[in-house]
Amino acid sequence: MKRYLWYLLVAGLLVSCKTQQLYLNVTEPAIVTLPPGVHKAGIVDRSEASKQAKALDAIDKVLTLEGAGLDRAGANAAIEGLESKLTADGRITELKRIDEKFDAVHLIGPFPPPIDWTVVDRVCSENSVDILFSLEAFDTDTRINYQVVKGGAPRTLLGAVAGVEHRAEMQTLVKTAWRIYYPSRQTVIDEFPVVHSLNFSATGLTPVVAAAALIDRKEAVKKVGIRAGEIYASRIIPYQIKVERDYYVKGTDNFRIAMRKARTGKWDEAGELWRKEAQNPSGKIAGRAHYNMAIIEEINGNLPSAREWAEKAYENYNLRRALKYVRIIDNRMSKNELLQIQEERQYQR
């Protein structure tokens, strides 16, 4: 049994040594595609209207002294983050923060019901904007756990006091919810929640004192709010990811030379050697060369040609890895079509 497992391990190493990995930066289309001709956007804060009354115990009231302003500061920071990211991107050429008061509503899950379209139409018309970004909800949900530590010595104005120490640990969930309204078609283009978690701890002589010591979280909540706004703005912006590809490095001397050239960044020279091996009388060698040529074409941004090489590697030489690669290229080509649509719409007037 041990000998059998050893053979499997050696076989696995031999297979893995046939190829090496490379990484490519690939541009992905934005998650949300804006309608054509959309360049002016309004931003409204509806989160205040989405608040729900909460019953407070004695310790909750200590936190609420700051809590009333905490959500307001966090919501403003979220809109600043959204505005900053959209301005830097330039896809939206005119952004307008709109001070609109909304009727109180109750949340259904993370979202309130959508704004009535008569209101959306009026707000967009009065402010000459094409779409409306809405911060639908901003809420900080706080949970506190208490521990009593005997023999602790918390610091006071009179120095360390031996006795019982109360330790408060607080987790604050910062929850935001966003929508984009498109009045021309009365369509909600997108809705998306963003949730972050913040953790704090403090000690004191009593539970109330320990809880009061936690009230230093406003700046942290504001930073999270800014980040939440940036994350949401990113949904309409194309982005880059790093993808992994394998290429063959063994088969003939040309493959080994091409591997060394590829390692030094001379991909075109490596491609010349693989192109020669594509005519090799050995189907195994020719299939690998065809596959590597597909990789070269993808590196050079020529996806149709990459697909042709990969397709031949599978159809003519039964290289199964190439079939998977054909599907990867098809997916990339489909995404590039959407990316092109998004880029064209960016410049439509």
Q: What is the overall pLDDT average?
A: 83
Secondary structure class reads alpha/beta
Number of strands: 9
Q: Helix content range of the residues, please?
A: 40-55%
Q: Number of domains in the coordinates?
A: 2
What is the number of helices?
10
Strand order of the largest sheet: 3-2-4-7-8
As residue ranges, the low-confidence spans are: 1-15, 52-61
Secondary-structure element string: HEEHEHEEEEEHHEHHHHH
Terminal CA distance: 71 Å
Instruction: Calculate Rg over CA atoms.
Output: 29 Å
Which percent band covers the strand fraction?
A: 25-35%
Characterize the overall form: elongated
Question: Concise description?
Answer:
With 349 residues, the protein is an alpha/beta fold.
Topology:
Blueprint: H1 2-17, E1 19-28, E2 40-45, H2 58-89, E3 94-97, H3 117-127, E4 131-152, E5 155-156, E6 159-160, E7 163-182, E8 187-204, H4 207-212, H5 218-233, E9 239-248, H6 253-263, H7 267-277, H8 283-299, H9 303-315, H10 320-347
Parallel strand pairs: 2-3, 2-4
Antiparallel strand pairs: 1-9, 4-7, 5-6, 7-8
Helix pairs in contact: 2-5, 6-7, 7-8, 8-9, 9-10
Describe the model.
The protein is α/β, with parallel strands linked by helices. It is built from 10 helices and 9 strands. The protein has a 5-stranded mixed sheet. The chain has a two-stranded antiparallel ribbon with strand order 1-9. Strands 5-6 form a two-stranded antiparallel ribbon. Helix 2 packs parallel to helix 5 (218-233), helix 7 (267-277) packs antiparallel against helix 8 and helix 9 packs antiparallel against helix 10 (320-347). The model is unreliable at 1-15 and 52-61 (pLDDT under 50).
